[in-house]
């Protein structure tokens, strides 16, 4: 859920029922920017809290039952609702009627040939239905709301409203919740607060306030009443439906485990104390990345249902069409997934902002994921083997990552993967999209009992959202093509034994040194810069790639017949390389020096150069 937008309403006293607070004459907030204010007002004006009205009966839990739903435990949830069969039946009827009526209307539109005419109407109706059904269904909609390449524009516009423009619940209820959670009168904590929420999403809504103690402008997020009870029952239902689908559809993947993984992260997201800790950790790990902003958390004002953090002004990244910040996000995702292993698992467009000074701000740290070391290594190896068309090794990677059972027929899998990926890889890594890789994979996954590991749904979503944002204003953007250069550089510079072994397996095939693969890794590593940096010296970068190719070709080919001319030309390239790149200190020099400082790649290069050196005296009849 997004915590900051481009505008700020004026502050108000805390409640009409309580004496007005005397605000200081200085320190008033800036007036709202009309365009954003108008958009927000138009999106929610006249709408009531449909979730509370239509699904409020789900909130009726005893204190002991409510306390039992603090953490995700499917057995505990099942035990609670086994004692409440009428609520379960009522929810099932509500779901059946809501979706049945909508699909029925779509069928009538098709039958009467009014589909185009009623398209936007049905999109609005679907958004309203999802909003009334509550957080679980809103979260599912948020997951697809960034994919302009998959969702029709009318539906995309409506589903995008579910990111942060859901009709809010009562402000009086929100303010009472703040006081109850903090154990203090609200006017002792804040000197000012916005009269209405700035943003409202599936789990809570956000107010802008000013801390009385420091005068700091902050965002105050308050949890929506009843969300844990509603989500618990809906997960129980979805899990039951997933079990039926798995049986009837003969799915290899454990759909219930995927739902369990998602549900666990969703329950963690509802604990704002946990979110504050995540935000602090995220800021420590990635706050130093150039042009990345992570808000400060105020733990002393944070409880399970209320969180206070630094206010950040900005616009949604998807609205400003800043491809450079998408590249920044790609690099940050690379760091999250393949270096630190702690990643933002809910980066929908409402949680990514372009700040007023042109930086990328991350918000909402409730749903985070852990990517273990062995999975990081497996993912890197799979990317390298895919790019280099090493499908034998790729089938092994799929076992390591949990996509294939260890008993799978490797040879048959290799042949199948070759048929699936060869056309996509022929385009080059820079032109591969998620759609290219998944387009023909369905039959192969079914035939060889591919599984979708529970962790993978969150990982792929974190990357797919970035690609979806970029595609909305650059249809040719490919997030995999932007991520691979960072993988190439990591493989060339990392000193870990695991990646050394990976590099050896990539560069040597049947004991033969593959110059073309080293050239590819070096060339791709040159692209491991954001577009803003690359735009500075495009000519020099291109020239650097030529030098890499020529240098490697003349010095590291084993099948060589010595001649003075060849020796002269090879030496000339070394001299040209030194003069052009060492003394000019251009972008390539910086990158090459970083790679050269990695002792392992230096050892490989010197070893291969030595092989050429030993050929020279024997060819000329010299004795050393």
Assembly context of the chains: single chain
Low-pLDDT segments, ≥5 res: 1-46, 530-585, 619-624
Mean pLDDT: 75
Termini separation: 71 Å
Number of strands: 13
Percent of residues in beta strands: 5-15%
Binned, the helix content reads 55-70%
The helix tally amounts to 29
Radius of gyration: 28 Å
- Overall spatial form: globular
| Sheet with most strands | 5 strands, antiparallel
Structural class: alpha+beta
Give a brief outline of the structure.
The protein is of the alpha+beta class.
Q: Could you describe the 3D structure shown?
A:
The chain is of the alpha+beta class. It is 59% helix and 8% strand. It is built from 29 helices and 13 strands. A hairpin with a 4-residue loop joins strand 9 (352-355) and strand 10. Helix 16 (373-387) packs antiparallel against helix 17 (391-400), helix 17 (391-400) packs across helix 18 (410-426) and helix 24 (515-526) packs antiparallel against helix 26. It is globular and about 80 Å long. The model is unreliable at 1-46, 530-585 and 619-624 (pLDDT under 50).
């Amino acid at each position: 859920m997004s915590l900051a937008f481009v505008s700020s309403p004026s502050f108000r006293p805390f409640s009409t029922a309580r004496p007005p607070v005397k605000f200081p004459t200085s320190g008033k907030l800036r007036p709202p920017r009309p365009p954003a204010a108008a958009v927000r007002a138009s999106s929610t004006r006249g709408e009531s809290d449909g979730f509370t009205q239509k699904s409020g009966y789900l909130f009726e839990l005893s204190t002991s039952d409510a306390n039992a739903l603090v953490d995700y435990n499917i057995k505990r949830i099942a035990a609670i609702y086994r004692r409440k069969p009428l609520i379960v039946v009522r929810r099932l009827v509500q779901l059946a009627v809501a979706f049945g009526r909508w699909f029925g209307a779509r069928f009538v539109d098709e039958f009467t040939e009014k589909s185009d005419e009623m398209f936007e109407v049905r999109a609005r109706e679907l958004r309203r239905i999802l909003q009334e059904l509550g957080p679980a269904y809103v979260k599912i909609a948020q997951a697809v709301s960034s994919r302009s390449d998959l969702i029709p524009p009318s539906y995309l516009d409506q589903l995008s409203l579910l990111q942060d423009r859901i009709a809010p619940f009562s402000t009086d209820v929100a303010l009472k919740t703040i006081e109850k959670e903090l154990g203090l009168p609200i006017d002792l904590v804040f000197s000012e607060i916005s009269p209405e929420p700035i943003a409202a999403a599936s789990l809570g809504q956000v107010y802008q306030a000013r801390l009385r103690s420091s005068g700091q402008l902050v965002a105050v997020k308050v949890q929506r009443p009843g969300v844990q009870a509603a989500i618990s029952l809906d997960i129980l239902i979805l899990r039951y439906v997933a079990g039926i689908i798995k049986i009837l559809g003969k799915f290899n993947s454990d759909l219930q485990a995927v739902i369990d993984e998602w549900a666990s992260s969703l329950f963690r997201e509802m604990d704002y104390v946990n979110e504050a800790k995540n935000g602090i950790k995220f800021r420590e790990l990635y706050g130093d990345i150039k042009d990345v902003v992570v808000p400060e958390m105020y733990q002393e004002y944070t409880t399970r249902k209320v969180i206070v953090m630094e206010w950040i002004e900005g616009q949604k990244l998807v609205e400003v069409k800043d491809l450079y910040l998408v590249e920044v996000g790609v690099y940050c995702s690379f760091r999250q997934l393949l270096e630190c292993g702690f990643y933002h698992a809910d980066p929908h467009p409402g949680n990514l902002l372009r700040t007023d000074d042109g930086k990328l701000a991350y918000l909402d740290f409730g749903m985070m994921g852990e990517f273990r070391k062995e999975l990081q290594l497996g993912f890197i190896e799979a990317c390298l083997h895919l790019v280099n068309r090493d499908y034998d090794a790729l089938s092994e990677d799929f076992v390591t990552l949990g996509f294939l059972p260890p008993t799978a027929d490797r040879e048959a899998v290799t042949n199948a993967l070759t048929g699936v990926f060869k056309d996509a890889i022929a385009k080059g890594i820079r032109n591969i999209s998620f759609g290219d890789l998944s387009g023909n994979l369905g039959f192969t996954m079914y035939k060889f009992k591919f599984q979708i590991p529970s962790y993978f749904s969150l990982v792929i979503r974190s990357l797919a959202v970035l690609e979806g944002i970029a595609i909305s204003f650059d249809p040719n953007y490919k997030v995999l093509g932007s991520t691979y250069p960072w993988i190439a550089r990591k493989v060339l510079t990392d000193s870990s034994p695991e990646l050394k072994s990976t590099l050896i397996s990539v560069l040597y095939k049947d004991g033969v040194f593959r110059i073309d693969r080293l050239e590819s890794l070096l060339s791709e590593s040159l692209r491991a810069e954001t577009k803003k940096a690359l735009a500075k010296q495009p000519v020099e970068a291109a020239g650097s790639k030529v030098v890499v190719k020529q240098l490697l070709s003349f010095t590291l080919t084993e099948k060589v017949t010595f001649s003075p001319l060849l020796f002269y030309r090879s030496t000339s390239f070394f001299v040209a390389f030194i003069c052009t790149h060492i003394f000019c200190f251009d972008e390539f020099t910086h990158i090459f020096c970083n790679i050269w400082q990695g002792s392992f790649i230096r050892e490989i290069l010197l070893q291969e150069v030595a092989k050429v050196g030993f050929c020279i005296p024997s060819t000329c009849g010299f004795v050393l």
